[in-house]
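Quick log. Single chain, no ligands specified.
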Amino acid sequence: MATTDSGHRHTVPAGDLNVHTGQSAGAKSLAVLRIATGLLFLWAFADKTFGFGYATSSGNAWINGGSPTKGFLSRVDVGPFAETLRSWGGTWWADWLFMAGLLGIGIAVTLGIALRLSAIAGTVMMLLMWVAEWPLSRTTAAGEPTMSTNPVIDYHLVYALVLIALAATAAGATWGLGNLWSRMPFVDHNRWLR
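-> predicted structure:
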């Protein structure tokens, strides 16, 4: 049972009441998904910056003069944009945009702020990476297998869908700073920043 402001009592299913307080299993599950997704972006940023030896060796770390985009984009050899994407690999602007995107999306999603902006930026980044891998092709220009396991849905598109779902459900309100962020005057007047 819940009481309205006028003092009238009405029945509200427990699950509905919990959704609004951020205490439902769904809200908590989305918070865990949000934090894990944000940390995924932050890890990619940290590994490319410092070269922990997972995806990026120490010698190829950004702080050691390596390029976070050259390795990935220089190997693009499938799809209609392969030549353009290869030409972007290792350029200063591609490196800075990519790293700023990883860091900004990672911080925002982990903290639960600016989820709409993060969803847009992250979706653009993931779509560009999907285009670079071009999973529609079964073979490379040299006739080698591309190792594509699904011609349409791959992990880049799943990450983009996760970011969109997190923004659409205001997942930053549970175990995040989403409510505080949305009450800031600048954000309140510019709802697209939520």
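The chain is about 55% helix and 0% strand.
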